[in-house]
Amino acid sequence: MEEVPHDCPGADSAQAGRGTSCQGCPNQRLCASGAGATPDPAIEEIKEKMKTVKHKILVLSGKGGVGKSTFSAHLAHGLAEDENTQIALLDIDICGPSIPKIMGLEGEQYVEDNLGVMSVGFLLSSPDDAVIWRGPKKNGMIKQFLRDVDWGEVDYLIVDTPPGTSDEHLSVVQYLAAARIDGAVIITTPQEVSLQDVRKEINFCRKVKLPIIGVVENMSGFICPKCKKESQIFPPTTGGAELMCQDLEVPLLGRVPLDPLIGKNCDKGQSFFIDAPDSPATLAYRSIIQRIQEFCDLRQSEEENLINS
Amino acid sequence: MEAAAEPGNLAGIRHIILVLSGKGGVGKSTISTELALALRHAGKKVGILDVDLCGPSIPRMFGAQGRAVHQCDRGWAPVFLDREQSISLMSVGFLLEKPDEAVVWRGPKKNALIKQFVSDVAWGELDYLVVDTPPGTSDEHMATIEALRPYQPLGALVVTTPQAVSVGDVRRELTFCRKTGVRVMGVVENMSGFTCPHCTECTSVFSRGGGEELARLAGVPFLGSVPLDPELMRSLEEGHDFIREFPGSPTFAALTSIARKILDATPTYLP
């Protein structure tokens, strides 16, 4: 029976194709030939392109449906409220590109003067078109997005990702390796079924040395619009994100409650902040966005100190 | 007529149902689990195959995480959940040494494992095999369908939530089904409304209408709406006996109706 290696040494490691765990791997020949060892020239090209991009933030989760795209979109909206800040939102979820819908861009490509969006969704002619691509082709698209899009002067580049820990995630980290990512924001819901995937995502970040800005617990409690009492639709039976963050020593950036207006606004492609400026969810978002900005500013000044010292 | 290819481990399975969605987090694993239980309740012998390599949720649904998986002479023995062996499962979750370890594999490696999974689990005789998939339309899905194709799956159940953003992704999944020749048995709308436990007001937390609209757009049957039930979720997470608690849930009626439709749509074979 063919064994699939669990301990892949990495396609670009010295052991690639030669390690004991490589025996029987479908990629063994390719790795052993040294093809993986030479760095992709695109990495340097992307580093050049990214020189005009001040901060890069990845929005991740191991789990699907926790609100990554909703969060990415609203992070972009929130940051773009300052007219002097240039924001770019890149959607690398190639199979399920939600960003165009959430940003109200189906059919158009313009949000605000200072907010630009890119997604494979824009390249599809019909809402029924399926992108049925295997890993290598998805990687190629991501490379193109990073290298060939003219980003210009950008203060924040937000990258929305699909669920999981696979090609897209490895590629975006690999291609941006030389360009320095500020960090990752990891989204979860309070349930253990989400947390169990998110722990894997945190381990993925540590494995690829991606700094973690913090975790956001989404869908954290629901206020009934009629009686105003709170219920837990997704009960935090194992302590929710708070306990996980304590255990894994990552910051909890905040908790966003479930507000039915969020879903409604995403369906209409509008910013939820405009429709419900006083919602507890809006307040939670704003506090989280501020913490993210503080993290990015701190990293920037740390880097500048390093350069100047 | 040419003899069929060597039967293998899937030969004893009468019907294979795929549970798909373009969108993550809509409840594919929950629906797969509930459907399997509803079919079992109707007297069928059911297996569940979880091919989500990055986020294998099925073991936990049954409190089976950490169960050991053994090799028998025909391949991997599935994990049985009850003495009568009326429900069995296989998931990559059982093969992970550390549950927090991420499976960070690129496409080709995932394809290889899925092929093994599909062909090397000794299911024995089953009435239904429910195959739970990860979100998307990529390597895992193509590998699963290619591996299952010789066994002529009954079809796919496509899961969405009511929101437009979910419908948007699931429309693409329906195209995927058309392109890969998978018959769509119907659309299931999950997370269809939440009933406040304090005042019984029902709120559409994730918008409304998406499931029916999707079924109409795609010209496929709308199989039903399944409401949000935090009590069931809580008992799932706390590792209570889901098999016993499920019949008490408001989701049970919805799933029983969906299972009935599937049973009615299943061709019966003359012995």
From TrEMBL, chain A:
One record GO biological process: iron-sulfur cluster assembly
Cofactor: binding details: Binds 4 [4Fe-4S] clusters per heterotetramer. Contains two stable clusters in the N-termini of NUBP1 and two labile, bridging clusters between subunits of the NUBP1-NUBP2 heterotetramer.
Cofactor: [4Fe-4S] cluster
Pfam family membership, one: ParA
Function: Component of the cytosolic iron-sulfur (Fe/S) protein assembly (CIA) machinery. Required for maturation of extramitochondrial Fe-S proteins. The NUBP1-NUBP2 heterotetramer forms a Fe-S scaffold complex, mediating the de novo assembly of an Fe-S cluster and its transfer to target apoproteins. Implicated in the regulation of centrosome duplication. Negatively regulates cilium formation and structure.
Oligomeric and partner information: Heterotetramer of 2 NUBP1 and 2 NUBP2 chains. Interacts with KIFC1.
Protein name: Cytosolic Fe-S cluster assembly factor NUBP1
Organism: Papio anubis (Olive baboon)
From TrEMBL, chain B:
Keywords: 4Fe-4S, ATP-binding, Cytoplasm, Cytoskeleton, Iron, Iron-sulfur, Metal-binding, Nucleotide-binding, Nucleus
Cofactor(s) listed in the protein's UniProt record: [4Fe-4S] cluster
Signal sequence extent: none
Localization annotation: Cytoplasm, Cytoskeleton, Cilium axoneme; Cytoplasm, Cytoskeleton, Microtubule organizing center, Centrosome, Centriole; Nucleus; Cytoplasm, Cytoskeleton, Microtubule organizing center, Centrosome
An annotated Gene Ontology molecular function: 4 iron, 4 sulfur cluster binding
Coiled-coil stretches: none
GO biological process: iron-sulfur cluster assembly
Name of a matching Pfam family: ParA
Tagged with keyword NAD: no
Binding of ATP, residues: G22, K23, G24, G25, V26, G27, K28, S29
An annotated GO cellular component: centriole
InterPro entries the record matches: Mrp-like_CS, Mrp/NBP35_ATP-bd, NUBP2/Cfd1_eukaryotes, P-loop_NTPase, YlxH/NBP35
Cofactor note: Binds 4 [4Fe-4S] clusters per heterotetramer. Contains two stable clusters in the N-termini of NUBP1 and two labile, bridging clusters between subunits of the NUBP1-NUBP2 heterotetramer.
UniProt-annotated binding residues for [4Fe-4S] cluster: C196, C199
Function: Component of the cytosolic iron-sulfur (Fe/S) protein assembly (CIA) machinery. Required for maturation of extramitochondrial Fe-S proteins. The NUBP1-NUBP2 heterotetramer forms a Fe-S scaffold complex, mediating the de novo assembly of an Fe-S cluster and its transfer to target apoproteins. Negatively regulates cilium formation and structure.
Family note: Belongs to the Mrp/NBP35 ATP-binding proteins family. NUBP2/CFD1 subfamily.
Subunit relationships: Heterotetramer of 2 NUBP1 and 2 NUBP2 chains. Interacts with KIFC1. Interacts with NUBP1.
Name the record gives this protein: Cytosolic Fe-S cluster assembly factor NUBP2
